[in-house]
């Protein structure tokens, strides 16, 4: 089982994906995302000037040990604080180290943000005197950066100042959300690729160019991308989500924007933290995860919040190891979410995509005072009939449909139609499904499910509800099926 989760206003699983209307404003109640905390955070203190390299006269150290991605550096004087960025000298490419531990004897243990091939003992290292700094601001829109803010899209340097310290279908679903929401969203979007496939990042970038989300000719791009893919060392993968978050925070605090932050995949953030923890020699906790798992996750997730100037809405994909939702990694993440959209392997095996499980998916925002009584009643009605159908499946498997009462037969019939109506053709998946993508407003979605629950379409075959948009398309498809059958 896979899980897609997010952070903003939420609704029910029955309307979660079908209600991605381009005309809706954020936060949208149909998105099954997480609402940012209402508490107002103090203004972020961004750096006032660029400092990409250590200043003259900065503390100088030398490498005394290299153990994979871990580098020990000894300083004669001026020991750098924890989280300071150090820069290795005498290399063709820039290598940044982040201070993780003080070992004593004027030695610090650091995590490399890139490969450590070619490093030797005795090599000079300079202290930058500050945490890692990255470019932020409108100039980053339409660009791809790595964890330390370097452009990796082969389009030249990002001409802006450097600010602040960086602190079964999930990806397809994220891409469809970007396609339907980010393109129509008036504010800015930030996409953080954390430990996922490089091919997917490349495909997403070119699809955004084709769709106009990224404009290479002028400054009208609406999205900034930050990548730390699975080929990167653990230090980079453990920090790239914080890099993307810093970019989003600038748009919120300085530009006054409502920002969309997409993170794919938040499990890789935890996984990288586990690798870094092991490299630093910390004693692991449950299932081998780092002992600071809850702290690391909380530090990142609780920066996604609302201020007086703007807000950050985050949609995050989570890989669930061995389909176990009680695994410490996803379980720790769930504590910070207002809504979870669970993708079920069993539903995917039925050929229903997106494979959202309405019974496992949850939302704290599913409240009539927030989404309205009509939306609430329809959502709960859909969940009830699907739960009743699930309870009857054992009887059906043993005795067959004929042994059910007429009322139960009607429940099964409507539940199967609802299951198929929950499918939706994606625009980003047109190439390999052959179905034209559909965008269904939330209001239309609620109306469709309401009419199915009321029995208005009991006479239609369940095949008519598969891979259609609004309910009118199901009626038209039923008529077409009847004509084909008659001929």
TrEMBL record:
**What's the superkingdom here?**
Eukaryota
Mind telling me which InterPro entries this protein's record contains?
ATP-synt_VA_C, ATP_synth_F1_bsu, ATPase_a/bsu_AS, ATPase_alpha/beta_chains, ATPase_F1/V1/A1_a/bsu_N, ATPase_F1/V1/A1_a/bsu_N_sf, ATPase_F1/V1/A1_a/bsu_nucl-bd, ATPase_F1/V1_b/a_C
Indicate where this protein is primarily found: membrane
Biological-process GO terms, alphabetical? angiogenesis; cellular response to interleukin-7; lipid metabolic process; negative regulation of cell adhesion involved in substrate-bound cell migration; positive regulation of blood vessel endothelial cell migration; proton motive force-driven mitochondrial ATP synthesis; regulation of intracellular pH
Sorted alphabetically, which Pfam families does this protein's record hold? ATP-synt_ab (PF00006), ATP-synt_ab_N (PF02874), ATP-synt_VA_C (PF22919)
Cite the GO molecular-function annotations of the record: angiostatin binding; ATP binding; MHC class I protein binding; proton-transporting ATP synthase activity, rotational mechanism; proton-transporting ATPase activity, rotational mechanism
Q: What class of enzyme is it?
A: translocase
Keyword annotations for this protein, in alphabetical order, are: ATP synthesis, ATP-binding, CF(1), Hydrogen ion transport, Ion transport, Membrane, Nucleotide-binding, Translocase, Transport
List the subcellular locations: Membrane
Domain ATPase F1/V1/A1 complex alpha/beta subunit nucleotide-binding residue range list: 159-363
What catalytic activity is recorded? ATP + H2O + 4 H(+)(in) = ADP + phosphate + 5 H(+)(out)
EC number(s) reported in the record: 7.1.2.2
Domain named ATP synthase A/B type C-terminal is located at 369-449
Q: Where is the ATPase F1/V1/A1 complex alpha/beta subunit N-terminal domain?
A: 63-129
Q: Which GO terms describe its cellular component?
A: cell surface; mitochondrial membrane; mitochondrial nucleoid; plasma membrane; proton-transporting ATP synthase complex
Which family would the database say this protein is a member of? Answer: Belongs to the ATPase alpha/beta chains family.
Q: What does this protein do?
A: Produces ATP from ADP in the presence of a proton gradient across the membrane.
Q: Which PANTHER family match?
A: ATP SYNTHASE, ATP SYNTHASE SUBUNIT BETA, MITOCHONDRIAL
Assembly and partners are described as: F-type ATPases have 2 components, CF(1) - the catalytic core - and CF(0) - the membrane proton channel. CF(1) and CF(0) have multiple subunits.
- Any idea what this protein is called? ATP synthase subunit beta
Q: What is the native source organism of this protein?
A: Cavia porcellus (Guinea pig)
